[in-house]
Specification:
The complex is a heterodimer. Chain A is of the alpha/beta class. Chain A has 18 helices and 13 strands. Chain B starts with a strand and ends with a helix. The chains are: A alpha/beta, B alpha/beta.
Chain lengths: 507, 240
């Protein structure tokens, strides 16, 4: 008896494993089929637009900054069509390795560690590190950070400097608490909120942070640490390496490079923000600053469209896939015992419901799509995810139709499939549609994680606004309200629709 | 027309039919009676394979029901069935309920099917309800529509599974009247029912089932006036 049971478990595990394999293979093939085409000279450049003034999102929602302008100028010199891909700083080197991008320009410091993974062009900028603190702080050296709370941008030089490790000569106190953020601006906000004592960051962004927070923050240079920025290309890619080096040489010779240094780095950016002592006026000025003068409303609008678009497309994928899965599972009812199809469907639902959507999204985007086509990856992920829930909704809807309907259909000579199509499904729809509407509403909220794969949805839009204005309250409340209204509106619409369906029942 | 030999049906350990043998001729109206749990409904549902028989031989209208190669869907077009709960399709109008099968089976065009459906509905007395939905009809009307729906496929055999058991008493008569007409027109019918009046008046033969076997198979006169078996006697004494 015991043996038999364990055999059964083994067999089902085997089925699960091979099914996962098939799924992954299919996803891989789908992912690969869409890669490199075009004969044009396109240079795909990865960056992390969270590092002003080198790279940031400008008021039109586009990637901008010193690095970006330099790269464009080089591209123009050398006849490349430069396409930028904005991603997280720590994904940049990985994307070079997988070939998702050809080069990376992101204020990246040349280090021996990085040299093992990528090749660097000639350096184009020398940077120093700064400690940013609140104005009332007396911290001036790295040594003083021992035992304090420090915020940094994950994976940056600042991170390396303050992390207490054996080979770190400066920070030796293991009670030093380092908070790592994906964005430098988040670290600054943490500092403003008083949760950390200092932020260690490159000189230029430090200058920007301080000028944007005048009277609140100040910064001091860290002595004796100079870094060199260079553009990274994948290891052994001589062609691109040489082209970029030559382009850099040319724009330095023709003066374009110096112009860009003037414009982006030495030029003082004038603040568009007005201030007032009257709290009401101050609030209005803040509103204007956050949503109007820095084009926040545009970002929110674009984000809203992306959120709705992705949710709609995903729900469509989910319905089609969910119907297939539901029918596969229903073969169990037809045959009166488990079938191959019903087993596959059960395992599918089991796996999808048993793993977090964010993990599925990251697998789809980073593994299957190799960090390309984030929107497709997101739609597919949420479609596949939603299908598991939709399948159960559809199955329940079908099972809720009176059993006599199937017999009635079969007794008229209809096959199982025909009876489903002509008789069961049209009735099941009434049970299914309202629940599907709810699934769509759930999906809208779930898509708030697509920012992880560099899609600018509503949540990511708020993120951008925060990183540009250093205001957290207004953008977050704004998207909360937008999500809420969206959901409320859909729920209302759904209720009306449901009432209509029921009315047609009474007739 | 219908030939049954050594028919068995078991659900797990429970044996519901323990060897049924019978033969029903073309144009015959056979009524099956018996206490509940006697297996009479199961027997009827085995005839068009709504229940999978466990063992035995069934030939209906030339179709070998037990042969896996037989096209059961085709067989069911020739063998109509009327259910206790009517099983009308609530999302379709009465007319659509009747025309669905002939149109989808491509036996008739939509116009032909509708013309025939109207005729059938008039014949069973619900011609004026063609554009209504099932939920707007009374039980008796629904069952008459269900009969019309079966007839739309021009079946050679009609199976009735307790057609009046779910009806209010005042509506039983109108349904039995339609069935009586059909029998008189020579339709081959197998009727599972508790309506002894109908059995006595309309049936050519009455089969009394009990405990999964046929206890008596006689003319109505013999069954009702002069039953041979003790079990038949005791059953009839309770229901009459």
């Amino acid at each position: 008896m015991k043996n038999k049971a364990s055999l059964k478990i083994k067999a089902s595990l085997k089925i699960k494993a091979s099914l996962m394999g098939i799924l992954l293979c299919v996803m891989f093939v789908v992912g690969c089929g869409k890669g490199n085409e075009t004969g044009e000279k396109i240079l795909r450049v990865g960056t992390n637009a969270e590092f002003p003034p080198f790279e940031y999102i400008n008021n039109d929602g586009e990637v901008d900054g010193f690095d970006i302008a330099v790269m464009k100028a080089i591209g123009e010199e050398m006849g490349y069509n430069v396409e930028f891909q904005n991603m997280e700083f720590k994904s940049l080197i990985g994307s070079l390795k997988t070939g998702a991008v050809d080069a990376v320009i992101a204020g990246m410091t040349v280090t021996d560690e990085r040299k093992e993974s990528v090749d660097f062009t000639n350096t184009y900028y020398q940077a120093t590190q700064h400690i940013v603190v609140r104005v009332d702080s007396d911290i001036t050296t790295l040594e003083q950070l021992n035992g304090k709370k420090v915020a940094v941008q994950e994976g940056t030089t600042g991170d390396l400097l303050v992390t207490p490790e054996e080979d770190n000569e400066i920070i030796t106190d293991s009670s030093t608490e380092v908070k790592r953020f994906k964005k430098g601006t988040d670290a600054i906000i943490e500092l403003k909120n008083g949760s950390v004592d200092a932020v260690v960051v490159d000189a230029n962004p430090a200058k920007q942070f301080v000028s944007a927070n005048e009277g609140v923050l100040k910064s001091v240079e860290v002595e004796g640490i100079t870094e060199e920025y260079a553009i990274a290309v994948s290891k052994g890619n001589e062609q691109v390496l040489n082209d970029i080096n030559e382009g850099m040489q040319r724009i330095k010779e023709n003066g374009v490079f110096d112009e860009l240094v003037e414009t982006y780095i030495n030029g003082t950016e004038q603040s568009v923000r007005k201030h007032s002592d009257n709290p009401v006026m101050e609030f209005i000025y803040t509103l204007e600053f956050v949503f109007i003068s820095t084009n926040g409303y545009k970002l929110l609008l674009q984000g809203l469209l992306a959120t709705i678009g992705i949710s709609l497309a995903a729900v469509l994928v989910g319905v089609v896939l969910g119907l297939i899965i539901a029918l596969m599972k229903m073969t169990e009812v037809q045959k009166g015992k488990k079938t191959l199809f019903s087993r596959i469907a059960t395992i599918y639902i089991d796996i999808i419901r048993g793993t977090p959507a964010i993990v599925q999204l990251l697998i789809m985007y980073m593994v299957v799509f190799q960090s390309k086509m984030g929107i497709v990856a997101a739609v597919l992920t949420f479609g596949i995810n939603s299908a598991a829930y939709v399948a159960e909704i559809i199955r329940a809807g079908i099972l809720a139709v009176d059993k006599g309907q199937m017999e009635g259909g079969r007794s008229l000579g209809f096959s199982y499939g025909e009876t489903m199509r002509y008789i069961i499904l049209p009735q099941a729809i009434k049970n299914i549609l309202p629940a599907l509407g709810n699934e769509f509403i759930t999906l809208i909220k779930e898509t708030a994680i697509v920012g992880y794969v560099a899609i600018q949805d509503l949540t990511k839009a708020a993120d951008f606004i925060i990183s540009r204005t250093y205001e957290t309250f207004l953008p977050l409340i704004a998207i909360a309200i937008i999500y809420y209204c969206l959901v409320k509106l859909l729920t209302k619409g759904l209720n009306v629709f449901e009432r209509r369906l029921r009315q047609s029942d009474i007739r | 027309m219908i030939f049954v030999k050594d028919l068995h049906k078991t659900y797990g350990k429970l044996e519901v039919l323990k060897g049924i043998d019978t033969h029903i001729k073309k144009g015959e109206c056979v009524v099956v009676i018996g206490p509940s749990g006697s297996g009479k409904s199961t027997f009827l549902r085995c005839l068009n394979k709504l229940e999978e028989p466990t063992k035995g031989e069934i030939i209906v209208d030339g179709f070998n029901v037990m042969d896996p190669k037989t096209d059961i869907n085709k067989m069911r077009r020739d063998v109509g069935m009327v259910f206790q709960q009517f099983n009308l399709f609530p999302h379709l109008t009465i007319l659509e309920n009747v025309t669905l099968a002939p149109i989808k089976h491509k036996l008739m065009t939509k116009e032909e099917a509708e013309k025939k459906a109207i005729e059938l509905l008039q014949r069973v007395g619900v011609g004026d309800k063609a554009n209504s939905y099932p939920n707007q009809l009374s039980g008796g009307q629904k069952q008459r529509v269900a009969i019309a729906r079966s007839l739309a496929l021009n079946p050679n055999v009609l199976l009735f599974d307790e057609p009046t058991s779910a009806l209010d008493p005042e509506m039983v008569g109108e349904v039995l009247e339609v069935m009586k007409q059909l029998a008189e027109e020579g339709m081959t019918m197998v009727v599972v029912t508790h309506e002894m009046g109908f059995a006595r008046e309309v049936a050519h033969r009455v089969i009394f089932m009990d405990g999964g076997v046929i206890v008596e198979d006689e003319t109505p006169e013999t069954i009702f006036m002069n039953p041979k078996n003790e079990r038949t006697k005791s059953f009839l004494s309770k229901v009459l």
